[in-house]
Design goal:
Layout (H helix, E strand, L loop, with lengths): L2 H6 L1 H11 L9 H18 L3 H10 L20 H11 L9 E4 L9 E4 L1 H18 L7 E5 L20 E5 L5 H11 L3 E5 H14 L8 E5 L5 H11 L4 E6 L3 E7 L5 E3 L4 E6 L8 E8 L10 E12 L2 E8 L6 E2 L5 E2 L1 H9 L4 E8 L4 E8 L8 H15 L5 E6 L14 E3 L3
Parallel strand pairs: 3-4, 3-5, 5-6, 16-19, 17-18
Antiparallel strand pairs: 1-2, 7-8, 8-9, 9-13, 10-11, 11-12, 12-13, 14-15, 16-17
Helix pairs in contact: 2-6, 7-8, 8-9
Length: about 425
């Protein structure tokens, strides 16, 4: 009932939430895990009062008192993107949400998803993003942030009252401009913290490397939206410096965990999220599907949200650390037989090919694949033709049925309209 007022005070609420958050990686996780368990219990109590979740609880034969910890969430079913989409569309028809935000995802997994977000939870989500920056050492109050233009920006690119006094300064770069213009915008603004989609970073860094153009190195930068592979990480460090932050999450959940600089693992924001790994039977495992539950989303919860990524984890001292993430690859190579080949089956071929910076597969038919490539000329001792022959042989040895493969060599692969870069685009219906 206070949503209209809270919407006007969203920045005030942001500061209140940020003040309460832990902004460094703990050396002792016992305190934060107690907070997590307490918030898990609060979440399930509130969720049980919502018809959508009460039905899911009853179908699973579970009551709120059966769930005491983050691990206990495995007793409830996964929430798929399609289920969430249908639920959000139904809820949006109700007048009580008129003062809520209606955010939309980029649609990288197929169809954009509308998400209802209360002003209170919008503020928390924004504060959590500031927390990611501060965990790395960035001070958003005196530093300058620059990002791609976003449809969800609260200020719409205009300076607020505080920004005019040098507090929370934020600039925007037009990510669809030509590369020379983007470089000029970044060099002129001189951000301390720079973030945009990984494919946009790739496009800029490849341009700078090829043309020997200097790009000002920010203290910190965060490629978002897609997994950062080792080849991209090496290029980013060369062009942008060592301040890379790998923040993991989605538009639906918010930033759930972070990997700083040269760290080999992600640390979960345990006070605000539960991140579990489930096997193909939706049972807890050390390797499998990444499932995220934002604990701050109690108005319209996302319990056991199946993002679509795979990962591995380790438990140490009762604390889960995510040791690897395999990014969403939302399409398959398809065959007339009905069989498919996933990206994960051919990923080792790409991961160990130092001849290539970027690659995209476009399946034109059941018999033909068009591959777009960006060559890593410094590392590669092969010609384009030699790379084509090598890749074609290795790929067809892995595919269930061989394809005719043709190649298109590019300076950089343009991202999709949503700013991300799908690795596999299957045009076979």
């Amino acid at each position: 009932m206070f949503e209209k007022l809270e919407k006007k005070m969203v920045n005030v609420l942001l500061f209140i939430d940020l003040f309460k958050m832990k902004k460094s990686i703990p050396t002792d996780f016992s305190g934060v895990l107690k907070v997590q368990d307490r918030r898990v219990r609060r979440l399930v109590r509130k969720a049980y009062k919502i018809p959508f979740y009460r039905k899911r609880f009853k179908e699973a034969g579970v009551k709120p008192e059966d769930i005491r910890t983050g691990d206990d969430l495995s007793k409830l079913p996964l929430l798929t993107k399609d289920e969430l989409r249908a639920w959000m569309n139904e809820e949006a028809k109700k007048p009580k949400y008129k003062d809520w935000y209606q955010d939309t995802t980029s649609g990288s997994s197929g169809v954009p998803l509308m998400l209802l977000v209360s002003p209170r939870e919008k503020a928390y989500n924004m504060a959590n993003w500031f927390r990611v920056m501060m965990t790395a050492g960035y001070n958003p109050f005196i530093g300058k942030t620059m990002s791609r233009k976003s449809a969800h920006s609260i200020t719409g690119g205009k300076d607020t009252f505080l920004q005019r006094f040098g507090i929370l300064r934020r600039g925007f770069v037009s990510q669809y401009d030509p590369e020379p213009d983007i470089v000029k915008q970044i060099n002129k603004y001189r951000p301390d913290f720079l973030y945009m989609n990984k494919s946009e970073f790739m496009r800029i860094c490849l341009y700078c490397k090829k043309n020997h153009v200097r790009l000002r190195k920010p203290k910190y930068y965060c490629p978002t939206g897609e997994k950062i592979d080792d080849t991209a990480r090496k290029l980013f460090r060369e062009i942008l410096g060592p301040g890379i932050i790998d923040s993991y999450g989605t538009a639906e959940t918010g930033a759930a965990m972070v990997k700083l600089f040269d760290s080999k693992e992600y640390v979960i924001h345990n006070d605000s999220f539960v991140v579990n790994i489930y096997d193909e039977h939706n049972k807890p495992a050390n390797e499998g599907n990444i499932v995220v539950t934002p604990l701050y989303k109690t108005d319209l919860p996302l319990i056991n949200y199946a993002i679509g990524d795979r990962g591995t984890c380790e438990m140490r001292g009762g604390v889960r650390f995510i040791t690897s993430v395999q990014g969403r690859m939302n399409d398959f190579f398809r065959y007339e037989t009905g069989e498919v080949t996933t990206f994960f089956e051919i990923a080792p071929i790409i991961a160990h090919c130092e001849d290539i910076f970027q690659i995209r597969f476009i399946q034109k038919s059941y018999h033909n694949i068009h591959i777009q490539c960006v060559q890593n000329k410094e590392q590669s001792g092969r010609t384009e033709k030699e790379i084509e022959e090598m890749l074609t042989e290795k790929l067809n040895n892995k595919f269930k049925h061989p394809f005719e493969i043709d190649y298109e060599w590019m300076d950089s692969i343009p991202p999709d309209k949503n700013g991300k870069l799908r690795m596999i685009v299957c045009e076979v219906k």
